[in-house]
């Protein structure tokens, strides 16, 4: 059986990064429901993130999205985060909201538009220098809607050239993380649709370029844990954007639709050294809380990742190897299922109490008075939103 002290130690090493945009209002293309107390500034988003960290103990990092989190002084924002026990995490670029990007950004046929997109990415690296962020996370909405609209390979060439310019600008301890997504907003071809395309581009760039797996960005039925295992084997897994989906890019709370899939993914992370801080896998959330309260939803999401992690760490690797070597299919499967079916909530409550945390973070947050305070104090001004 796995040693419980070692499991607890691994849980203590885990860090989950929360997205600034998860604290703001979001919705669908049909309606954005505003919620009382939602942050109006990047600083207020950090104040909320600090509460998530206070009650979970493992969420000190906050990812920013530029220009959604534009401020005058990024070093000051980094200092603001630090005063609250936080760090600024990945800088997410945004080359999808301007009219200029109708036909794409870094893959656009017009070099002037490509230049504009690359300039934005270089600005994001400047921001990283100011905040101390180590990861530039790139997702491109680029693609085409109709057969013949543009040349598939020419677009890959433009992508490679644009990425190379950005890669050159990175500092020694900074990474370029390239996220893929099957479709949307492009509906015929997408320029980075899958892990293979991201991997090929990253390999050409070099060691500081790695792939991001957003769990909502695959075709239904895709075996995501297989992708994770392969990328770890190649040392090309830069991180995750965790969320849950029933249909497409739903961005629901991670682990809600299919907690078993989350466990299977995290087992491959465990099996392939991905929980070792030296492997440097970024465990990020990328979610939008459209109808639920935001801070408790982020807390619940962090807990869902932590529960699945605990189960993954509980897999009896020795017994599994023995069953695999003996070709005992049922015994091997039983070892994995035993871990998955373990109720880890008492273990995690104990782990929290050992750190002076509330055993139930959701209840702890509900009782702390923060929600009432922000509802009373955050009046006037414009609420932050997904895309604002
Ligand atoms: C694209 C995506 C990407 C963006 C985020 C807001 O669907 O997953 O990570 O930066 O959503
Ligand atoms: Mn994402
Ligand atoms: Mn997405």
Automatic annotation (TrEMBL):
Keyword terms of this UniProt record: Isomerase, Manganese, Metal-binding
Alphabetical list of Pfam families matching this protein: AP_endonuc_2
InterPro entries membership: L-rhamnose_isomerase (IPR050337), Rhamnose_iso-rel (IPR013457), Xyl_isomerase-like_sf (IPR036237), Xyl_isomerase-like_TIM-brl (IPR013022)
Record-level GO BP terms: L-lyxose metabolic process; rhamnose catabolic process
EC number(s) from the headed UniProt entry: 5.3.1.14
Domain Xylose isomerase-like TIM barrel residue range list: 49-249
Top-level taxon of the source organism: Bacteria
Record's protein name: L-rhamnose isomerase
Organism: Streptomyces tabacisoli
Gene name in the database record: rhaI
